[in-house]
Amino acid sequence: LINFKWNVYGRFYYFILWVLYSIFMCCFLIVSTIPSHKISWNNQAILLTATIIFGFIRFIFEVRQFIHKPIAYIASPWNWFDSFGIYFAIMIGVAQKVFSFLIVLGIMVLAFAHSLHLLLRPTSDSSSVSSWALKNNWTLAFLLVIFSFFTTIY
């Protein structure tokens, strides 16, 4: 009985749903990814209209699911994923940008720390007063100013 219902009704129904969703996604992707100067205004308007129509059809199917079983619809993890998926995409995008910024900042801090370590390493002079005079050592003065500037900004 189940195989009969699947072969007669279910296969066709879900195939139609898949085709409608695929057309919706193709129209949406074409309109959103191709720059507006490469596609004519007429074609863009047709694709936008098709996207709106197929999106409305998908919305009707979602409303039907909610009306049929509202508690199961709300409790479904797939619907929660649909609701919060955009936030995960935003967080991942921000994390990727922050990660590249932190790599550049880390390289800068490492370069300054290494150069200051080499310039300020202990010498055989054991006096309590340092022999470094910023007037005589322009490299050290420049590095100290630049390092303090960048660490204050970032």
From TrEMBL:
Positions of transmembrane segments: 12-35, 41-61, 73-92, 98-120, 132-153
The UniProt keywords, alphabetically, are: Membrane, Transmembrane, Transmembrane helix
* Protein name as annotated: Ion transport domain-containing protein
